[in-house]
Amino acid sequence: MKKLLLIPLFAFLFTPFESHAQTSSDDTISNTLGIGPRLGYYKAEDAEEGSFYGGAQIRARLGRVVGIEGAIDYRTAQEYDLGEYSVDVRQIPVTASALLFLPVSEHFQPYGVAGLGAYYDMLDFSEEAENLPGIEDDHTVDFGYHLGFGLELPFNKNTALNVDYRYIFLDPGSDSFGDVEEADFSGNVLTVGLMFYM
Fold it and tell me: Where is the Outer membrane protein beta-barrel domain (predicted)?
């Protein structure tokens, strides 16, 4: 008889937790597709200064934990001092990334990110390089990969702000650089994006 009386008591005590868990999962961004603008800052290890960039990203949330992202950006020029001359490099990266979310709460979701990218590089050499053999303005496509972490801050089921840090591993393949080692494009990237989910 005492056991029978405990059943309604347990049901009463655990109902609020169950109801909160259902509400929380309903409010969490999952199983949806989103698109939005992004801004960032990129500083290659060997560049004299960093550069700002803007672009767009699309994210698919495949459940609460797994996501994928595609992005395209335009990065303004970074200058590389190559000794006797310098080169300004502008980039249009097209990247694909896998995202692994840790849904701590519906309004606070850290994630890890890893992915690959194709980088369309536009190289503009300084006047000092004009008379050097084999050195001329060039356009190339290089491939690299990136690793990082970030934080998505949902405002509701349809809108979220994301901030992340990535390190890009990218060596230029252009023959225009010759054997100069100071042309490494690997570096740090900070990105802020605003997502609009459907």
Answer: 27-195
Pick the residue with more confidence: 100 or 48?
100
For residue 138, what are its two tokens? 């060039």
What DSSP line would sit under 109-133, residue for residue? EEEEEEEEEEEEEEEEE-GGGTTST
What is the CATH code for 2-197?
A: 2.40.160.20
Q: Which residues contact 64 (CB under 8 A, 6 or more apart)?
A: 25, 28, 30, 101, 103
Asked if residue 188 lies in contact with residue 43, where contact means CB atoms within 8 angstroms, the answer is: yes
CA nearest 46: which of 80, 8, 11?
A: 80
Answer yes or no: are the C-beta atoms of 191 and 163 closer than 8 Å: yes
Residue (of 34, 5, 21, 9) closest to 197 by Cα position: 34
pLDDT of residue 14: 40
Buried/exposed 41-66: b ≥16 CB within 10 Å, e otherwise: ebebebbeebbebebebebebeebee
